[in-house]
């Protein structure tokens, strides 16, 4: 997992171990695949075989998650997956603890079509996250009479994006949906910033770049080029409250950290108070009395999360819209109600 | 042209499973419910109401024609085969039965969502093709009428090509198919003759 997720998980382990009301302590067992896609499954198996651990918190990309699921099935493990993903999965061995499209992409598109216009450009890294998110964006766009001006992908890790930005410069869309990850996204935002500096059609407030996974965790690396990016997520720094599972704490650097912390806290609450709970399967844990209060759906294993749309201003995310928590709907088969603005109790 | 998948409305859709009570059924039902479908299991008899369901999952290992209230190849809903034994005889049965998608047993943690999408898409294509073939067969059967109509029009002093074009023009004016226009012309001439006979 990434650094932010690891930090959140370890904060929660410390919190659990210092909490006298929970009848358990956690001992973290760590393995680092270092982003090497072929190392995830062997290292996950190593954890499950060489230690008593049954619950693994980890993975960032969907690709790595799909790699470890067969190992979890074979060895009886559970994965707590604390980063946003593209939906359309419901493994019996996974808790999906960050947002799926009805909690990030769809609210972001609603906001964008009503605020910036209907002409959009789609881009992403060449793997499942970008492909599926952009397919969904096309579908939503068709429903609202939007016009997809272009769609272009970049190999993971590639920083060769001049052609992509040239195309955007020529097409002048109302907004760009960016599903690029890592160095490709950094290079893209740099080149877009240069375009904004030289072409008034891309000046301040025009043709914003959208993201469904950018958090404070990456703002430092991206620097000034991140200014103006609009992102959707369950939480951004400064918002109160944070996620279900974070109760009483908001000292997180990003929603990646908050969701990993919430994962470990939710696990502790499921395990606490039931003898031998560590031997129970995930469906059995979620069937325990009181489990429904933890915030994980026993039907989909997805969590209920608030939705915030925020824009990078002066190096931090400033919220534009904040909505009440909604349940994850990984297959988008539930009726889509109108999101309710988050009402805060004024002290 | 690339085909865009039409994603069916699966929330609240009705899935019927024909399989004896088994861990495979539990795993299948879990996945279906996670996707958002309502699930009912039947064994060994299928109720007649299965015709109104949205999807049927059937156990190929034990299935036989008499279990289904329709002739092989004529399932009125998308069907998904649950395959355990890969014995050729069972595969032959399933090819004759005509399923739209398949899942291998044991049913595990995934696979159901893609089977639902493939089954719906294949079923829709199958029904669409069957309708098109019916239509083409009917038009093929009307070839004789077209020949008669062209001959009748040509008999009024036109070349065969001119008569053909006139028939096409009439079909467009009447907003009917070429064959239906031919049918009208043949019928009207026949009517005139009958009038003459009576006259």
From TrEMBL, chain B:
Alphabetized InterPro entries for the sequence: AmiR_N (IPR049021), ANTAR (IPR005561), CheY-like_superfamily (IPR011006), Sig_transdc_resp-reg_antiterm (IPR008327), WH-like_DNA-bd_sf (IPR036388)
**What Gene Ontology molecular-function terms does this entry list?**
RNA binding
Concerning Pfam families, the annotation shows:
AmiR_N, ANTAR
ANTAR domain segment(s) = 126-186
The name this protein goes by in its record: ANTAR domain-containing protein
Species of the source = Sagittula salina
Q: What is the lineage of its organism?
A: Bacteria, Pseudomonadati, Pseudomonadota, Alphaproteobacteria, Rhodobacterales
């Amino acid at each position: 997992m990434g650094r932010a997720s690891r930090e959140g998980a370890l904060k929660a382990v410390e919190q659990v171990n210092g909490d006298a009301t929970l009848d358990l302590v956690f001992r973290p067992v760590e393995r680092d695949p270092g982003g090497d896609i072929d190392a995830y499954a062997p290292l996950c198996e190593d954890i499950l075989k060489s230690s008593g651990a049954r619950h693994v918190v980890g993975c960032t990309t969907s690709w790595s998650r799909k790699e470890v699921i067969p190992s979890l099935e074979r060895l009886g493990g559970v994965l707590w997956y604390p980063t946003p993903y593209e939906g359309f999965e419901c493994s019996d061995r996974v808790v999906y603890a960050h947002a799926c499209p009805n909690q990030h992409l769809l609210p972001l598109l609603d906001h964008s079509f009503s605020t910036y216009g209907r002409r959009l450009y789609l881009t992403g890294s060449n793997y499942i996250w970008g492909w599926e998110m952009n397919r969904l964006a096309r579908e939503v766009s068709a429903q609202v009479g939007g016009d997809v001006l272009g769609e272009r992908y970049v190999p993971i890790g590639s920083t060769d994006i001049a052609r992509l930005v040239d195309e955007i410069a020529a097409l002048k869309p109302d907004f760009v949906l960016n599903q690029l990850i890592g160095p490709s996204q950094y290079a893209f935002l740099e080149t877009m910033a240069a375009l904004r500096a030289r072409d008034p059609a891309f000046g301040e407030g025009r043709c914003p770049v959208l993201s469904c996974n950018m958090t404070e965790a990456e703002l430092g690396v991206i620097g000034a080029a991140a200014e103006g990016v609009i992102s959707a997520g369950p939480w951004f720094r400064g918002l109160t409250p944070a996620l279900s599972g974070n109760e009483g704490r908001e000292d997180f650097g990003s929603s990646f950290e908050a969701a990993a912390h919430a994962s470990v806290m939710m696990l502790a609450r499921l395990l606490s108070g039931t003898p031998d709970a560590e031997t129970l399967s995930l469906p059995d844990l979620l069937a325990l009395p009181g489990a429904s209060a933890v915030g994980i759906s026993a039907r989909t294993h997805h969590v209920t999360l608030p939705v915030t749309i925020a824009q990078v201003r002066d190096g931090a995310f400033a919220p534009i819209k904040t909505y009440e928590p909604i349940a994850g709907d990984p297959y988008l088969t539930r009726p889509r109600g109108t999101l309710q603005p988050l009402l805060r109790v004024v002290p | 042209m690339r085909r865009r998948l039409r994603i069916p409305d699966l929330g609240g859709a009705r899935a019927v499973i024909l399989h004896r009570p088994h861990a495979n059924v539990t795993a299948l039902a879990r996945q279906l419910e996670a996707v958002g479908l309502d699930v009912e299991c039947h064994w060994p008899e299928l109720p007649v109401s299965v015709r109104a369901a949205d999807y049927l999952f059937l156990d190929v290992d034990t299935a036989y024609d008499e279990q289904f209230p329709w002739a092989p190849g004529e399932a009125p809903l998308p069907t998904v085969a649950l395959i355990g034994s890969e014995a050729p005889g069972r595969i032959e049965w399933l090819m004759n039965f005509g399923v739209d998608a398949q899942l291998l047993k044991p049913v595990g943690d995934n696979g159901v969502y893609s089977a639902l999408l493939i089954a719906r898409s294949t079923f829709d294509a199958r029904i669409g093709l069957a309708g098109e073939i019916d239509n083409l067969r009917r038009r093929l059967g009307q070839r004789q009428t077209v020949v008669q109509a062209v001959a009748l029009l040509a008999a009024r002093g036109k070349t065969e090509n001119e008569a053909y074009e006139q028939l096409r023009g009439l079909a467009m004016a009447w907003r009917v198919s070429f064959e239906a226009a031919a049918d009208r012309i043949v019928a009207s001439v026949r009517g005139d003759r009958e009038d003459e006979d009576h006259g």
